[in-house]
């Protein structure tokens, strides 16, 4: 065994939570390894082209946008705004949202990680086995690590350890995945009248049989780059039989998403003069998964905790995004906190007493299905990831 | 017989079809956009309006003002019916 395979903290999954965890742990001086199965860091915010950071700002919007969590969420959010040339986040209804370009997030996360002398990044690597202590089996090597953080989004490490460590909502309730793609060359400003016009055109096309019914879940959003548009469609993905951990279903989701992108692109180009010059679709690496397996930690955060803005003594991060439930592809259902005040996420949602040295953050932290509708968003994932990174760096057996 | 195009019937359609869901009471003058009405939900609403009231809305007619409240939408639809 080469000495290079020994780490103090190993983070599995290089999305928002994982990057924040790896930066936080390495900045505390821990020899840290970040493992990512794709080649780009940033997770859903790069590979699935999810182009909005939610959960970065205080839920009380009356004072203007206020960063909710100090440290990496504020640092990364500020840097993304600079790269995108954004002066302010967008006020959407009752919440602030930060739009970003996926390529900016990919390069920014890579640069931030490369700047940390105690951090090693290993992309294109799959974890295939895990044993307490901790030993992680990758495609081609073994890693020994004092502490491990699961930021895979799918609770991969819990699933490798066994059934008692994870939960998965029933298929019918799982939040639906989204397929996001983009094009350039729109010759008009994508303002609200144009977005509503396009929505009505799509409804007509579906009624006439020119577009599949799945196109009804489509929304258009302007990128920070002029003329660039993101097209996002929530998909039913097998409805009552959807299983995000099933390879065949994931493959089917991807092909449905690609076919829909092509159909919507063909339709837009031929149905409205502002779209005749648009470039062919830029496809994501994969669809955006909103919910799959979650860890069962020492505490299970509930929707009630969030809605009542409950605070905790062992608070690790703050949540401020409303419960954004997407159990169908027909649009979100929002449940706002009773008061415009943040809720706490306790450290006990990021660890399990029976597994010393194991931490988890991001979409697979310990919460119930309803609470996940809030804490799954990327801004909150940055905050819980940062907290898990600090906890893991401080862990001693 | 023409469909009942009162503000109340439009609001019932919106709530029955779960176009918006709200923990707070919703009246015919409540701002639907503040409750989360977005372009995706408006697409569903368009389909249901056509099914229930037999009224097709042209793409150019789909504006924020006409969909802002159940009362405004009912008035717009009634105008199209006559």
Overview of this structure, please?
Chain A is α+β, with helices and mostly antiparallel strands and 397 residues long. Chain A folds into two domains: 3-170 and 292-394, FAD/NAD(P)-binding domain (3-Layer(bba) Sandwich); 178-275, no CATH class. Chain A is 30% helix and 21% strand. Chain A has helices at residues 16-27, 44-47, 72-84, 102-114, 156-161, 192-207, 247-271, 303-307, 369-375, 378-394, and strands spanning 6-12, 32-36, 52-53, 90-92, 95-99, 119-123, 127-131, 135-138, 142-150, 166-167, 178-183, 218-222, 229-234, 294-295, 315-319, 323-325, 333-335, 343-346, 358-360. In chain A, strands 1, 2, 6, 7, 8, 9 and 19 form a seven-stranded mixed sheet that branches. In chain A, helix 1 (16-27) runs parallel beside helix 10, helix 3 crosses helix 4 and helix 6 packs across helix 7 (247-271). The longest helix of chain A has 25 residues, at 247-271. The model of chain A has no long low-confidence stretch (mean pLDDT 95). By secondary structure, chain B is mainly α. Chain B has a single domain (7-81), classed as ACP-like (Non-ribosomal Peptide Synthetase Peptidyl Carrier Protein, Chain A). Chain B has four helices and no strands. Chain B has helices at residues 7-16, 39-53, 64-67, 70-81. In chain B, helix 1 (7-16) crosses helix 4. Chains A and B meet through helix 6, strand 12 and strand 17 of A and helix 2 of B.
- Overall, the morphology of chain B is globular
Name the CATH superfamily assignment of the largest domain in chain A.
FAD/NAD(P)-binding domain
Unreliable residue stretches of chain A: none
The total tally of domains of chain A equals: 2
Shape of chain A: globular
CATH architecture assignment name of the largest domain in chain A: 3-Layer(bba) Sandwich
Percent of residues of chain A in helical segments?
25-40%
**Structural class of the helix and strand makeup of chain A?**
alpha+beta
State the helix count of chain B.
4
Domain count of chain B, please report it: 1
Give, in order, the helices and strands of chain A.
Answer: EHEHEHEEHEEEEHEEHEEHEHEEEEEHH
CATH topology of the largest domain in chain A: FAD/NAD(P)-binding domain
Extract low-pLDDT stretches of chain B.
Answer: none
The largest sheet of chain B is:
none
Largest sheet of chain A: 7 strands, mixed
DSSP helix fraction of chain B: 40-55%
CATH homologous superfamily descriptor of chain B: ACP-like
């Amino acid at each position: 065994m080469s000495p290079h395979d020994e780490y103090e903290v190993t983070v599995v999954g290089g999305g928002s939570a994982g990057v924040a965890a790896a930066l936080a742990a390495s900045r505390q001086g821990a020899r840290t390894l970040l493992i990512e199965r794709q080649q780009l860091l940033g997770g859903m915010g790069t590979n699935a082209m999810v182009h909005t950071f939610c959960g970065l700002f205080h839920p009380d919007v009356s004072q203007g946008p206020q960063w909710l969590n100090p440290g990496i969420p504020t640092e990364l959010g500020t840097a993304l705004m600079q790269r995108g040339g954004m002066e302010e986040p967008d006020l959407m209804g009752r919440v602030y949202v930060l739009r970003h370009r996926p390529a900016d997030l990919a390069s920014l996360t890579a640069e931030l990680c490369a700047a940390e002398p105690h951090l090693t990044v290993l992309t294109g690597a799959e974890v295939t086995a895990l044993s307490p202590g901790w030993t992680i089996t990758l495609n081609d090597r073994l890693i020994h690590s004092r502490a491990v953080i699961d930021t895979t989004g799918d609770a991969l490490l819990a699933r490798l350890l066994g059934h008692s460590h994870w939960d998965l909502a029933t298929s019918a309730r799982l939040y639906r995945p989204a397929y996001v793609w983009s094009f350039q060359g729109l010759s008009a400003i994508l303002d609200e009248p144009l977005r509503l016009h396009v929505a009505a055109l799509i409804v007509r096309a579906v009624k006439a049989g020119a577009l599949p019914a799945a196109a009804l879940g489509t929304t258009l959003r302007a990128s920070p780059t002029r003329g660039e548009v993101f097209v996002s469609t929530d998909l039913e993905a097998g409805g009552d039989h959807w299983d995000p951990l099933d390879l065949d279903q994931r493959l089917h989701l991807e092909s449905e998403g690609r076919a829909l992108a092509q159909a919507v692109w063909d339709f837009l180009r031929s149905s409205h003069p502002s779209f005749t010059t648009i470039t062919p679709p830029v496809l994501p690496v994969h669809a955006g998964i909103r919910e799959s397996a979650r860890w069962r930690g020492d505490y299970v955060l509930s929707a009630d905790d969030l809605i009542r803005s409950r605070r905790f003594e062992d608070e690790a991060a703050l949540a401020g995004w409303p419960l954004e439930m997407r159990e169908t592809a027909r649009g979100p259902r929002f449940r706002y906190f009773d008061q415009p005040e943040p809720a706490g996420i306790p450290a006990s949602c990021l660890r399990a007493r029976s597994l010393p040295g194991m931490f988890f953050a991001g979409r697979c932290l310990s919460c119930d299905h309803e609470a996940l509708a809030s804490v799954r968003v990327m801004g909150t994932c940055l905050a819980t990831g940062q907290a898990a990174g600090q906890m893991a760096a401080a862990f001693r057996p | 017989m023409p469909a009942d195009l009162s503000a109340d019937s439009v609001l019932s359609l919106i709530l029955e079809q779960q176009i918006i869901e709200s923990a707070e009471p919703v009246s015919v003058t409540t701002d639907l956009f503040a409750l989360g009405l977005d372009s995706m939900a408006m697409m569903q609403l368009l389909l249901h309006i056509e099914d229930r009231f037999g009224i097709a809305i042209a793409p150019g007619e789909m504006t924020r003002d006409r969909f802002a409240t159940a009362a405004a939408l009912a008035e717009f639809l009634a105008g199209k019916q006559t």
